[in-house]
From TrEMBL:
Origin superkingdom: Bacteria
All residue ranges annotated as the Rhodanese domain in the record: 34-121
A GO molecular-function descriptor: transferase activity
Presence of keyword Kinase: no
Upper lineage: Bacteria, Pseudomonadati, Bacteroidota, Flavobacteriia, Flavobacteriales
SMART domains: RHOD
PROSITE patterns: RHODANESE_3
Protein name according to UniProt: Rhodanese-related sulfurtransferase
């Protein structure tokens, strides 16, 4: 029983740390950026993208972003999204390293989609 409680405690702690990290790295005002023409860059795999995505988003997987970033306009504003928010942070950093100035972390694509839908009501 003690081992089960320890495992549950560790899982809960990891989850809490993840949620705090997610909210600290998530940029605010994304809906406003989208209304001003920001491009949503979905960095999940093509297969994941096909299972669902935000309408109008562009799909360049994290695994190919180091080669395919040249397809993007460095003067445009991009919001990176993925399934949970970790790959979007990595993609954001990679693009910033390559000179992109207007890159924002949008976290999980499904959460951003809900925010967009709620703000469009």
């Amino acid at each position: 029983m003690k081992n089960v409680l320890i495992v549950c405690g560790v899982i809960l702690t990891v989850y809490i740390i993840y949620r705090v990290y997610r909210y600290q790295t998530l940029d605010n005002g994304l809906d406003g950026l989208i209304k001003k023409g920001a491009v949503i860059l979905d960095v999940r795999t093509e297969k994941e993208f096909k299972t669902g995505h935000i309408e109008g988003s562009v799909n360049i997987s994290l695994g190919t972003i180091r080669e395919r970033y040249i397809e993007l306009d460095p003067d445009k504003t991009y919001i990176t999204v993925c399934s949970h928010g970790l790959r979007s942070v990595k993609a954001e950093n990679i693009l910033k390293e390559r000179g992109f100035k207007y890159i924002h972390n949008g976290g999980a694509w499904s959460d951003l989609q809900e925010t967009i839908a709620a703000n469009n009501k």
